[in-house]
C-alpha cells in the first residue's frame, strides 16, 4: 500500500505531518519546523510525538521519507504558510497536491479526506463520524434523550448532511418541516369501484337529504357487502372516511320503508349532542329525531331537546339506552323500543374500556335479544383483531385501511417550558394556510387534564378555547359553534374526550402523551391523530407530537412513548371481566329474560362473560340477588336495584351495610363517590415557595402529603398559612390511622358542595364560593355532573333502604335528592 504524507498547519509557523497508508490513524504524528536560509525554506527539525516522550527524526531521514511518498497532500492553510511549505518542497524537487480533510478528525490526529457524504457544520465540512460525535455531545448538554431519540436524530443527519439543522431540533423554533417530519401516511388512491347515490336502492327522500353524487370508498364497500340488504356489519375505517353515513343510510332507509326506528349510540354525551344536532338538521324533515343521554336532574337554563323514546331516530349514550332495557317491563319507554329496525353502535372498540366495556358488551347482547330482527352496524377506527370481533358480533367485516387525505406526522423534542410557545407557533402557521376547499387550518390540542386545557388556552396569544367534560353543555356547544365558524384557531381538549371531539381540524397537536396518569395506548393515539384532516375541508392532515425527553412515567420517557406509538399498529380488543362485573351483567340480562335458558343465551352473546351461567346465577342466589322459583329466575329487589341503578355489586352491599348501621344517606352517597375535582388556583406559586412540584389537584395524595405538612406550612407567608391552616382544620381533622389518605377530606369537601347547593347556589355559584372561601377552582360542569350523580346515588340508597324496610332512611334519601334537584 503506497505511502501518503499529509501536511496541515499547526501552531505558530509549524506544520503537522501525518505519514499514512490509508485513511485513519497515521504511522506517526510529526511536528515540522522550518527555517529560512539563503537558499530558501529548509527543515529545521521534525519532532515525532510519542505517548511518553517525544523523539526527533533526523532531517535527512525526514527528507528521505518525503521522497519515498507517492504523494504529498497539503491541507488548506493561509497563503504565507502555503508559500513556505512549497519553497521547502521545491528545494528537493517535490510538490504537493491540495486536499481537504475533516478538521474534527485532525483534532484527534486522524486523517479523513473529504468526500461527497461529508456533513456541513457551520462554515465547514466534517466527516459523518465526527458529526455524530458532535451531535451526541450537544445532546448531553441539552439533557436526556433516549437511544431511540438519538437514532432518530442520526437518521436525519444522514439524510440532511447538515449538523447545524439537526442540533437546532434540540432547541425547537421555526424549524423546517422536513426536519421534524417523522413520516407521511399517504392517501391511497381509491381502488373501490365507484358507486353513484342515484343508482342505490334508497328511498328518494333519503337520496335528496344526502346531497351527494357519489359514495366514498368505505361507503361503497359497505353497500357492496350488503348494507342495503339488511346485512349487519362491523365497519373498521380511519376517522373522517365516512363511517357514520353508513349507519345513517341503513337506519334512515329502513325507517322510511317501515322496518323500524333507528338507534344511534355513542359513548359520550358531547358526541351524542353533536349527532343529535346533525341528524335533526339533516333528517328533521323526514323523521322525528330525539336524544337519550341521561338528562341532568339538576335544573339549569339549557337548550330544548326532544327526549321522546317514541321518536323515529334516537341518538343516545350507551348507558342511557341500557337504562331503558334494564328497567324491563316495569318501566316506561320499553314499548317503543320493540320496534327497532337499525342499531348503530359508534366507537365499538370501547368494549375493552376498563370501566364501561362490560356494560357496552351487555347492552349489545340485550339489544340483540330485544330486537333479534334488527340490522346492527358497528363502527370503529381502530381494532387490531377485527375478524374475531366481527365473528362474535355476527356481523360482516368491512375494512378500509386508507385515509381520505394524507397525514403528515411530526415529532419535536421540547421541554415543558417550550410547549405552549410551540403550540402557538404551529397553530398560527396552520391557520395562515387555506386549503383548496377554501378553509383555514385549525388545530386541536390534546393535553392530559382539564386544568391544563385552561392554562394552555389562556397562555396562547391567539383565538382559542378550552373544551372538556367539566364544561356545561351550553359552554361546549358555544365552543363547537365558534370553531365551526372559523372564529377559533385552537381548541384545547383532554385525551379523555378524544372520542367526543368532532371538530373539523386540519392539525392535531399532542401537548402530552398521557391520559391522566397513564400513557396513551396505541389505539387511543390512533383515534386522536385521526381527527386531523377532513376530506370536505382539507388537503392534508398534520399531527405534531411535542415530546419532553425529561418527563418519565412508569419507567418510560415521553420520547420513548412517542416512538412506540408512532410505530405501533392497532391493538386487539381483549375483553375480560372479573366476577362482580359478570354478576352485574347477569342481573341486567335477567331484566329482559325470565328463564335460565334465556339468560344463558344472552350471557353467551357477550364477549366477556366467561363463567357458566348456572354458576353466576347460583352466586347471585347465594348473595340474595336472584331467586329461582317454578322453573324461572328473577332478580330480587336488591338485584333489580343493582341492575337499574348501574351499581357495582360491592357498592350495593356497602349501601346495605351502611343503612343497617343507620348511616345518613348523604354520608353513604359521598362514600360511594366523593368529589375530588378541586384544583389549587395558586399551584405554581406554591411550587416556588415549597421548592417542589405541587400537583394541581388539591386532593391528590401528593398534594395532601406535601402541602399540608407542618414543614410546608411553615414556609408559607401569613396569608397562605392562614388559608391552608383553616382548610386543614375544616377538612383534615379526622383521627383515622391513615389520615389524610383515608378519604375523609374528599368526603367532607363533597358535603360542603352539597351545603352550597342547599343554600340555593347553581354550579357557577358553587364554583365561585369555593374560590372565595378556599382559593380552589372547580369547573361548573364537574360540579353539575357530581350533583347529578349524587342524586342518582341517593335514589339507589333510597330504594335499597325501602327494600330493607328502613323507611326513615328511604324518606331522608328521597327528600335530600329532591332538595338538591330543586335548590334554586
From TrEMBL:
The keyword Ubl conjugation does not apply. CDD domains: SF2_C_Ski2. This is ATP-dependent helicase. PANTHER family: ATP-DEPENDENT HELICASE MJ1401-RELATED, DNA POLYMERASE THETA, PUTATIVE (AFU_ORTHOLOGUE AFUA_1G05260)-RELATED. It comes from the Archaea. It comes from Methanocella paludicola (strain DSM 17711 / JCM 13418 / NBRC 101707 / SANAE). One of its GO terms (molecular function) is hydrolase activity. Keywords: ATP-binding, Helicase, Hydrolase, Nucleotide-binding. Residues 224-401 form the Helicase ATP-binding domain. Pfam families: DEAD (PF00270), DUF5814 (PF19131), Helicase_C (PF00271). Residues 426-581 form the Helicase C-terminal domain. The keyword ATP-binding applies.
Amino acid at each position: 500500500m503506497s505511502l501518503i504524507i499529509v501536511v496541515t498547519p499547526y501552531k505558530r509557523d509549524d506544520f503537522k505531518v501525518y505519514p499514512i497508508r490509508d485513511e485513519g490513524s497515521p504511522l506517526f504524528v510529526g511536528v515540522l519546523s522550518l527555517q529560512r536560509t539563503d537558499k530558501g525554506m529548509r527543515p529545521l527539525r521534525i519532532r515525532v510525538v510519542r505517548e511518553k516522550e517525544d523523539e526527533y527524526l533526523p532531517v535527512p531521514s525526514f527528507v528521505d521519507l518525503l521522497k519515498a511518498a507517492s504523494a504529498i497532500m497539503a491541507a488548506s492553510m493561509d497563503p504565507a504558510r502555503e508559500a513556505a511549505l512549497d519553497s521547502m518542497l521545491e528545494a528537493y524537487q517535490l510538490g504537493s497536491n491540495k486536499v481537504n480533510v475533516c478538521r474534527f478528525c485532525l483534532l484527534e490526529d486522524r486523517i479523513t479526506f473529504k468526500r461527497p457524504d461529508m456533513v456541513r457544520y457551520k462554515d465547514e465540512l466534517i466527516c459523518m463520524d465526527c458529526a455524530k460525535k458532535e451531535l451526541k455531545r450537544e445532546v448531553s448538554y441539552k439533557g436526556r434523550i433516549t437511544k431511540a431519540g438519538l437514532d432518530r436524530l442520526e437518521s436525519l443527519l444522514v439524510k440532511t448532511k447538515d449538523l447545524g439543522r439537526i442540533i437546532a431540533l434540540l432547541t425547537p423554533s421555526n424549524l423546517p418541516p422536513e426536519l421534524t417530519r417523522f413520516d407521511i401516511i399517504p392517501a391511497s388512491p381509491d381502488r373501490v369501484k365507484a358507486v353513484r347515490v342515484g343508482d342505490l336502492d334508497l328511498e328518494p327522500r333519503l337520496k335528496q337529504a344526502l346531497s351527494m353524487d357519489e359514495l366514498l370508498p368505505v361507503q361503497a364497500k359497505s353497500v357492496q357487502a350488503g348494507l342495503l340488504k339488511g346485512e349487519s356489519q362491523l365497519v373498521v375505517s380511519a376517522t373522517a372516511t365516512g363511517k357514520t353515513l353508513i349507519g345513517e343510510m341503513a337506519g334512515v332507509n329502513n325507517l322510511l320503508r317501515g322496518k323500524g326506528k333507528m338507534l344511534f349510540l355513542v359513548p359520550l354525551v358531547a358526541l351524542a349532542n353533536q349527532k343529535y344536532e346533525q341528524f335533526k338538521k339533516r333528517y328533521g324533515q323526514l323523521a322525528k329525531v330525539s336524544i337519550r343521554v341521561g338528562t341532568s336532574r339538576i335544573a339549569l337554563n339549557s337548550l330544548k331537546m326532544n327526549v321522546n323514546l317514541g321518536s323515529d331516530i334516537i341518538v343516545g349514550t350507551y348507558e342511557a339506552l341500557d337504562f331503558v332495557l334494564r328497567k324491563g317491563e316495569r318501566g316506561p319507554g320499553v314499548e317503543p323500543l320493540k320496534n327497532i329496525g337499525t342499531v348503530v353502535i359508534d366507537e365499538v372498540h370501547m368494549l375493552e374500556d376498563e370501566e364501561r366495556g362490560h356494560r357496552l358488551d351487555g347492552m349489545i347482547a340485550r339489544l340483540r335479544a330485544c330486537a333479534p330482527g334488527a340490522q346492527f352496524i358497528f363502527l370503529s377506527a381502530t381494532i387490531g383483531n377485527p375478524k374475531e370481533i366481527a365473528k362474535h358480533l355476527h356481523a360482516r367485516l368491512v375494512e378500509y385501511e386508507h385515509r381520505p387525505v394524507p397525514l403528515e406526522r411530526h415529532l419535536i423534542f421540547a421541554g415543558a417550558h417550550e410547549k405552549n410557545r410551540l403550540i402557538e407557533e404551529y397553530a398560527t402557521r396552520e391557520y395562515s394556510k387555506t386549503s383548496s376547499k377554501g378553509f383555514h387550518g385549525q388545530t386541536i390540542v390534546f393535553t392530559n387534564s382539564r386544568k391544563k386545557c385552561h392554562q394552555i388556552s389562556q397562555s396562547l396569544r391567539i383565538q382559542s378555547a378550552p373544551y372538556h367534560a367539566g364544561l356545561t353543555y351550553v359552554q361546549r356547544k358555544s365552543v363547537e359553534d365558534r370553531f365551526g365558524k372559523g372564529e377559533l384557531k385552537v381548541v384545547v381538549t383532554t385525551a379523555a374526550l378524544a372520542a367526543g371531539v368532532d371538530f373539523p381540524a386540519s392539525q392535531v397537536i399532542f401537548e402530552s402523551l398521557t391520559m391522566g396518569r397513564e400513557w396513551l395506548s396505541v389505539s387511543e393515539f390512533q383515534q386522536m391523530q385521526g381527527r386531523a384532516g377532513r376530506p370536505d375541508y382539507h388537503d392534508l392532515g398534520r399531527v405534531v407530537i411535542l415530546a419532553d425527553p425529561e418527563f418519565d412515567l412508569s419507567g418510560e420517557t415521553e420520547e420513548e412513548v412517542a416512538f412506540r406509538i408512532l410505530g405501533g399498529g392497532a391493538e386487539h380488543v381483549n375483553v375480560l371481566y372479573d366476577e362482580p362485573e359478570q354478576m352485574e351483567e347477569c342481573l341486567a340480562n335477567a331484566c329482559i329474560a325470565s328463564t335460565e335458558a334465556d339468560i344463558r343465551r344472552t350471557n353467551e352473546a357477550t364477549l366477556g362473560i366467561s363463567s357458566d351461567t348456572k354458576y353466576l346465577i347460583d352466586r347471585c342466589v347465594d348473595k340474595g340477588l336472584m331467586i329461582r322459583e317454578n322453573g324461572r329466575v328473577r332478580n330480587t329487589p336488591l338485584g333489580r336495584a343493582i341492575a337499574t341503578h348501574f351499581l357495582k355489586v360491592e357498592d350495593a352491599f356497602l349501601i346495605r351495610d351502611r343503612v343497617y348501621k343507620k348511616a345518613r344517606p348523604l354520608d353513604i352517597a359521598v362514600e360511594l363517590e366523593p368529589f375530588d375535582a378541586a384544583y389549587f388556583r395558586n399551584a405554581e406559586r406554591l411550587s416556588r415557595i415549597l421548592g417542589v412540584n405541587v400537583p394541581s389537584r388539591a386532593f391528590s395524595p401528593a398534594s395532601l402529603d406535601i402541602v399540608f405538612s407542618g414543614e410546608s406550612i411553615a414556609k408559607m407567608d401569613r396569608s397562605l398559612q392562614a388559608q391552608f391552616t383553616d382548610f386543614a382544620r375544616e377538612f383534615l381533622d379526622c383521627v383515622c390511622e391513615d389520615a389524610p389518605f383515608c378519604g375523609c377530606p374528599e368526603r367532607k369537601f363533597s358535603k360542603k358542595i352539597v351545603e352550597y347547593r342547599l343554600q340555593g347556589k347553581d354550579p357557577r355559584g358553587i364554583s365561585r364560593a369555593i374560590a372565595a372561601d378556599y382559593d380552589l377552582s372547580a369547573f361548573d360542569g364537574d360540579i353539575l355532573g357530581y350533583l347529578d350523580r349524587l342524586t342518582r346515588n341517593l335514589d339507589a340508597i333510597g330504594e335499597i333502604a325501602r327494600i330493607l324496610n328502613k323507611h326513615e332512611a328511604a324518606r331522608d334519601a328521597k327528600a335530600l335528592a329532591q332538595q338538591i334537584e330543586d335548590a334554586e
